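QA checklist item 7 of 12: single-chain prediction sanity check.
[x] sequence parsed
[x] length recorded as 422
[x] structure emitted
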Amino acid sequence: MPDFRSQSAEAAHRALMSTDFHRIRRLPPYVFEEVNKIKARLRAEGTDIIDFGMGNPDMPTPQHIVDKLIETARDPKAGRYSASKGVPGLRKAMANYYGRRFGVKLNPDTEVIATLGSKEGFANLAQALTGPGDVIICPNPAYPIHAFGFIMAGGIIRHVPALSPEEYLSNISRAVKHSVPPPSVLILSYPSNPTAQWVDLDFYKDAVALAKKHDLLVISDVAYGEIYFDNNPPPSILQVDGAKDIAVEVNSLSKTYAMAGWRVGMVVGNARICAALARVKSYLDYGAYTPVQVAAAAALNGPQDCVDEIRGIYKSRRDTLIKSMKAAGWDIPNPPASMFAWAKIPEAYREAGSMLFSRLLIEEAGVAVAPGIGFGEYGEGYVRIGLVENEHRIRQAARNVKKFIANADSILAKAHNKMEQA
């Protein structure tokens, strides 16, 4: 006799495994995954890929920071649990950094939280601040965690076009007026990932005034605040009088000190928001490995000539990229800050869209970029280029791009034929 109970259990298991969980259903397929799969396949076949796709620093972490990690790791007690909000020495170093860099006084006990990178800090801020159905104002295009951190927390995103800081700011009041329920959080991110745009202190003054007018909390992401080129150093929103009443800032050591894999960031500012984040984190983690935190404090407290050197490397790469790509027939705007360039798709490929262009660029030219559509609907027609290859590799990429543009008609025809046959 058939075992119907077993068959029923198997059917239920199949149904369960074929149904996405609630939060997973709210996440679209990761747009960058298609390019990543092509990249992996071509590399496995032996193809040399010049990879501008991910903002992954390729420079070594400064030696004095590594030395402090090694020294601290030799302590037999170093492997014990740490503190979820960060060890006191690191939080004090973060507060001192804000005092030196921005003239902003922070209480390291109540206004500074050390995080496992800025991404984790942002995601857990979303968990701390968001109730089901809360409306969040988010720039578009934007780094994906800015929207999806809140989506995973049950929030609803009100996307506001942000191809320029002025466009974003001017549309916030309209977004508030047409949102039900009224928005509770406003997201800012300058220098911007992906658009590389920079703002001055007047922008933040206007943003704080707008947020107070509409009763909004503000999260400002300044992860690229030390990577700037032709302007004055980017400001902090916390420099605005009264900003700490409503705002926190998310920051990171990842790009500033070439410490991306170390996962050290911070959330600083409004004490009530910091306390909420600390409470969420207390349930989720015990903080980074203590030697990593001690080394991060050494980075912030130690000599800063390494920061100037890293910034100089990115500037040299930026200048090489702009010049060599222009000679190849691709005009790319000169980014004033960040480790990215944000570029319109070359005219010959404009109708292809950012996804197909990025796929063809890696397949036909061996050059990887991030499709703009991955940063939101208003990113369509653009790609993001990371300054994560040296000048020699950038010039080689430009030579490949020159051929790619020259052969656009035949490459697009072949791609369309392939799609029709699929």
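[x] summary fact logged: The longest strand covers residues 135-140.
[ ] second reviewer sign-off
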